[in-house]
Specification:
The protein is α/β, with parallel strands linked by helices and 395 residues long. The chain contains eleven helices and 16 strands. Strands 1, 2, 5, 6, 7, 9, 10, 11, 12, 15 and 16 form an eleven-stranded mixed beta sheet that branches. A three-stranded mixed beta sheet has the order 3-4-8. Strands 13-14 form a two-stranded antiparallel ribbon. A hairpin with a 2-residue loop joins strand 1 and strand 2. The longest helix is centred in the first third of the chain and has 17 residues. The relative contact order is 0.19.
């Protein structure tokens, strides 16, 4: 019989603050972390979910050595992964613990500094700044810093990356390959991301408005979110919930756009619901992908109706709090979904005014108590049509 998988620890850093308690506090009070971008200069007028700590402040807080190059992606990821591990209080010596981390930009924030020095004059620039460029570099550093001893891997499937990391970790525990795993994702803001999304014409210069008929685009964000997953045989300080269902699908429709019928999102949600053995009306809350772009929100709304019919559960996008954290989104928003389930909350969809034509019901716009909630879903959909859904339920 396959092992059951439980969430025994949470770790998160985002524009809402450093640590899970800061996330919970901001979500309850409705305090957004999106501000005008200040991390670096850009020709674009950008609102973003910045983590309010410099790289040096993060390095000091994490107790890392001076004189080494640490990408912001690495620093944010280590902070969140360490919190998830420490909160669980599991006995590491007796367990095989893996690390599966997602990222889309890797160490590009530091690489950009190198090339800004090197390109005008190839005698300048420190090659050391390129050491952390690869997506796997942050994963390897965090794995070694935490003294883990199990499987180690990196996933990059754009904005569904962290959900896929969590899914992969759960599957490995079920198969008995590892006892526990820290799974999620980390991504930092960088010029490449800002320029890329600007070229697609999908950045909103004001606060994003997910699932609103007047939505104009997304706000970018940065952060890291990880879950400490354990098998049912592992003792831990707390069990937040069970990983009840998950699914990944790819509609292969377009490089950057979702299909109008929401095929990938539909298949991911449908598969996760079927695996969870929950009836659709037993899902008490959905943390939707909800980026605030015209295409994404319309496609996801159609998919929601295909899965749930006229009884779409209460849902909201939390990207109005943090911005879109890209490869980290599934990790950050899995933490938010589990906090909703654990505390009996439905988080508000900030900045909403007018319902979309594609939606029969509006998102939840104010904080709502839902102590009776038994199961919650979170969606993360990536470029290329890669769509992933996770379902957690109470234990």
């Amino acid at each position: 019989m396959a092992n059951e998988v439980f969430v025994a620890g949470l770790g998160c850093v985002s524009a809402l603050g450093y640590g899970v308690s800061k996330q919970r506090e901001a979500l309850i009070t409705g305090a957004s972390g999106i501000v005008p971008l200040t991390l670096f200069e850009t020709i674009h007028e950008v609102m973003a979910g910045e983590v309010a700590f410099s790289n040096e402040e993060l390095r000091v807080r994490l107790g890392l050595s001076e004189g080494k190059e640490y990408s912001r992606t690495t620093l944010l990821g280590l902070a969140a992964a360490r919190e998830a591990l420490e909160e669980s209080a599991i006995e590491m010596d007796d367990l095989k613990i893996g690390f599966i981390s997602a990222t889309s930009v890797g160490g590009m924030d530091v690489s950009e500094i190198f090339y800004r020095e090197y390109l005008p004059d190839n005698r300048k620039g420190r090659l050391r700044k390129l050491i952390g460029h690869d997506c796997g570099a942050s994963t390897q550093f965090i794995y070694e810093n935490l003294n883990l001893n199990g499987f180690c891997s990196t996933i990059n499937t754009a904005c569904s990356s962290a959900n896929n990391a969590i899914m992969m970790g759960a599957r490995m525990i079920k198969a008995g390959l590892i006892d526990a795993v820290i799974a999620g994702g980390t991504d930092s803001l960088c010029r490449f991301t800002v320029n890329g999304f600007s070229s697609l014409g999908i950045l909103d210069g004001e606060l994003c408005k997910p699932f609103d008929s007047g939505r104009k685009g997304l706000n970018l964000g940065e952060g890291a979110g990880y879950l400490l997953l354990v098998s049912d045989k592992v003792k831990s300080k707390k069990r937040y919930c069970r990983v009840a269902g998950y699914a990944n699908a790819n509609d292969a429709f377009h490089q950057t756009a979702s299909s109008s019928n929401g095929e990938g999102a539909f298949l991911a949600m449908k598969g996760a619901v079927e695996m969870s053995n929950h009836l659709p009306d037993e899902i008490g809350y959905i943390n939707v992908h909800g980026t605030g772009t015209q295409n994404n929100d319309a496609s996801e709304a159609v998919a929601l109706k295909r899965v749930f019919g006229e009884n779409v559960p209460p849902f909201s996008s939390t990207k109005g709090f943090t911005g879109h954290t890209l490869g980290a989104a599934g990790g950050v928003e899995s933490v938010f979904t589990i906090l909703a389930l654990d505390g009996g909350y439905i988080w508000p969809n900030l900045n909403f005014k007018d319902k979309m034509d594609e939606c029969d019901r509006p998102p939840q716009i104010t904080l709502k108590r839902a102590p009776e909630m038994r199961a919650a879903m979170t969606n993360s959909f990536g470029f290329g049509g890669n769509c992933s859904t996770l379902i957690f339920d109470k234990v």
